[in-house]
Known about the structure:
Strand order of the largest sheet: 4-3-2-1-5-10-11
Structural class: alpha+beta
CATH topology of the largest domain: endopeptidase fold (from Nostoc punctiforme)
Low-confidence stretches: 1-37
CATH superfamily of the largest domain: endopeptidase domain like (from Nostoc punctiforme)
Number of domains: 2
Shape: elongated
Radius of gyration: 27 Å
CATH class of the largest domain: Alpha Beta
Strand content: 5-15%
CATH architecture of the largest domain: Alpha-Beta Complex
Number of helices: 20
Amino acid sequence: MILILFFLTSYLVIGQLKYKTITLDLKNATNSIASYSTSPFNIFSESQMMSHFLETQELEITQLSKELLELNNHISTIKETSLQAFFINFLKEFSWFTNFNAKYLYKIESSIQKRAPIKGNEILFISNSFSLYKRYTLLNQSIQNLLIKTNKNKLSSIMLESQLSQLQNFYLNYSNSIKIQRIRRILNEKNNSFNIKKNDLKKMVRKQLKRKNFKAIKQQINKIIIHTKFSHSDTLFKELSSKSYRNSFIKKDNKKFRKLFMKDKFHNTGRTFTYFLSRLMGNFIGLFKYRNGYLFKNDSIYNELFERLKPLDIIAEKTSFLLTDKLITGHFGHVAIYLGTKKQLEDSYLWNHPVIVPFQKQIQEGFCIIETNRRGTHLKKLKQFLNVDEVAILRITNFDQLPTNFKLTFLNNLLGQLGKKYDFNFDTETNDKLICSELLYDVFGAIHWPYMYSFNRFIVTPDNLLSLALYKNSPISLQYYISSNKKNIDNKNLFDLAKNLGYTQKNNGFIFINPKCEKDRFKYKEPCTKPNKILEYSKF
């Protein structure tokens, strides 16, 4: 009886997802387009700029930490002018970070208001910048600790400015983002890649807005007899100096944010339940396999693929012999990314880069593919991966012409995902767990991939990813596609791919076939009343 209920639940959950995919994919097919120019260079340029900024800030924080340590080591002979100069430099860097961070968070918030998904590079930016923000606040706290040790009254104004700027920068950076659940969830997730622990955002809010911090700043205000104009904190200065904690907007915000986190707690409880149920079903269904793939141990195909594959190619596969493949929405069941061989990485001047060095031994042993499956995100050999019936290779358009620093950003994103667990909630907008298609979503994050919205979350399936190759001016292109059965191995083309994904050719382009429309046309002998637009990758 329990087994029957288990299979019935599996059928209902996965079956509903499959049905919603068909209907919702049509709704979003022509809306899933990029807000950038269609040139891959322009698409990835903003992503590269964001990465460069974050790397620069990380180096700046490291340098400031070294300078502060040096000041601390000479605390007995420290000069007021030296400490003042250091603090001014720190405020300048923190302000620069805040301006950039607030700008891009606002941009992400604006796209959310349009019901657009958060793109992969934006998800990474949210976590990476929050990690840097935490380091800035720790550095600011270290400055305050040093000021306490010096015990010089003339530096009390710096102490106050330090306290006020920390609170002010919290408001500038994250007060709006906390109000948006989708960003708040990403910020509050555990992310080992950026040394973020679960509920770090929640703890930060409590620390910044609690009564104890309010009183500490107010005590410092009372020490200042004549108030000089502070560079960033006039509004906060007036609020703290003229009002009690009970009547301040700080307490009101604290109460409001706590309610939001409590709401998330109930939401996460439900997600945890569905996660474990889905994991139980997925692991059980994954046990059923009735044969090997038709391309398994085929040396000629193996050698041909090795000749064709280039670093950071996208590989898609279909495994008709697995029960999980029958239940996954769409034609293709899995995607991965080809990392490359030693020679290929050497030819691309990437082999000795620090991001590759830790994995050189594994790459030399033949581990050249990175995938995410029920065992998590890991390296795999091509021969192991080829236990399939169909395989397709896709590539970033004009990839060879992209600058090396772009490719290094992709590699850094890719290798940073290793070790992450499988996301049985199938939610694209997460950091701590992945599904196979989300691996691509994050690595090539600047691309606006086709998606669907189901079960109150954004989902990207392998078919969604591959369908982008059908768009005019697409940033990816089909390089190779073969399908096999017991007798033959057939070479396929873009038109075969379109047919398998549920699209048809029209006027030198492709449109999505609306199953309901086709059914009504056959039943009532009438043409479809809502013709689909030709897919085109362009601006909104």
